[in-house]
Design goal:
Two copies of one chain form a homodimer. The first copy, chain A, has six helices and eight strands. With 224 residues, chain A is α+β, with helices and mostly antiparallel strands. Chain A has one domain: DNA mismatch repair MutH/Restriction endonuclease, type II (ECO RV Endonuclease, Chain A, 3-Layer(aba) Sandwich). The termini of chain A are far apart. The chains hardly touch. Chain A binds a DNA duplex (22 and 22 nucleotides) through helix 3, strand 1, strand 2 and strand 5.
Chain lengths: 224, 224
DNA sequence: ACGGATCCATCATTGGATCCAG
DNA sequence: CTGGATCCAATGATGGATCCGT
């Protein structure tokens, strides 16, 4: 039985492709209405994340978790990506949170980051206008090319090794050509456990992996 | 600054006593109104826990946690206890959750259970009528007598030792003269970590310590 | 332009206890 | 009667990302 306001999960990739294509050209307001939901924001309330939530529901994605992609049975992750009127990427893309205390023991091959990025349905959504008026562009189902994956792994290895050495405090968003590390938290007081240079536990701001706009621009340009 | 709908914490025990005495004879509806809250339940919605929440707010108790009592600076725990029209205890009383994987290493002396029970403000509340109509009887500030504490420790030791042996699966609410073990969870699917006979991790239903009605009847009878 | 900080919705957990079948 | 199961409110953690000062 499908949850209210969410479509049933697609049974196979072809069904997901059809649903995704059907979103192209529609606004988030239209999509929300079809789901029996509301895409209007209360005054003074931000809408970060709501475009992603609406597209999830419209496509029948599960709520998502660190361990599983949005379409578990298909092995596909869903990402909305903000673009301007000319289709240019406006923002970086969050990939997943980093388990700072464990990443030293995890290679790229079995990392959450790689699993999240191994197959992604990109859904470009217009930015810079009221949520309900944002129009969806043509979605793209993507798997990293060998070159792309190699570049991501290179960034990952450098970042993971620096965290593994206990240098998280010195690691900024400057590191990484395509994949970078940035804070990921509800507010500045949030803390998670990391390990310092001598293996001692350290309470630090939670971090996540993000894809730089230069990288996602490359991906979307496959259509241009 | 006091939170909306909650009094400021009492500064000393005498202040708490005065506030508690002032509740005697009043209904939860009156108390809720004085706090700017509503003691009426929506149709079909249960009210488990709401009497406790209202009395907490009226007395200026903090939200409470496993590590701290409701009045941290006074070392006092607050418990509402349901009684019938004749003042007889209707239900068992939840004490605290059990850390199944750690209790083997904790004696009664430094247990959460003992800390929670070392000093308790009991607030009897009428049961068996709509929440807003329930009247509060005379509160009682209690510390276990040597005999009472000895009895509680005896129950605790037996329970803790059986859990320490990995026999949690065989431990029922039948064990314990005054202190017993019962499930404590939001629903039947909840699981927490325990240790089996060979020290292996085991996912089991979370449990809590409860005081049997026979024990709390003894306590309240100090007034009779 | 972009690195660091933050914001909303939803789900899980915890503290407050009571419900109810046998 | 009472042991096992459950229920609500509030808080914390997580996944969805965007905001904004320099």
């Amino acid at each position: 039985m499908a949850e209210v306001g969410r479509r049933a999960p697609p049974r196979h990739e072809a069904e997901l492709r059809v649903r995704a294509e059907a979103l192209a050209g529609r606004t988030l307001g239209e999509i929300a209405r079809a789901l029996g939901r509301d895409a209007r924001a209360a005054p003074g309330v931000r809408t970060k994340g709501r475009a992603g939530d609406l597209v999830e529901r419209a496509l029948g994605a599960s709520a998502g978790s660190a361990a599983e992609p949005d379409f578990p049975s298909l092995g596909i992750e869903l990402k909305t990506i903000p673009v301007d009127a000319d289709g240019r990427v406006c923002e970086s893309t969050f990939v997943c949170t980093i388990q700072l205390a464990r990443i030293a023991d995890e290679s790229w091959a079995d990392s959450w980051a790689r699993r999240k990025l191994s197959r992604v349905l990109w859904v470009p959504v217009e930015a810079d206008r009221p949520l309900a008026d944002r129009r969806i562009a043509r979605p793209l189902l993507w798997t990293p090319s060998p070159d792309e994956e190699s570049a991501l792994r290179s960034d990952y290895d450098e970042i993971a090794s620096r965290i593994g050495l206990g240098a998280i405090a010195d690691l900024t968003a400057h590191t990484g050509l395509y994949l970078q590390v940035r804070p990921k938290a509800a507010h500045g007081r949030a803390r998670t456990s990391a390990l310092g240079p001598d293996g001692e536990p350290l309470a630090v701001t939670p971090r996540g992996f993000y894809l730089r706009p230069t990288f996602t621009t490359l991906i979307l340009s496959r259509y241009l």
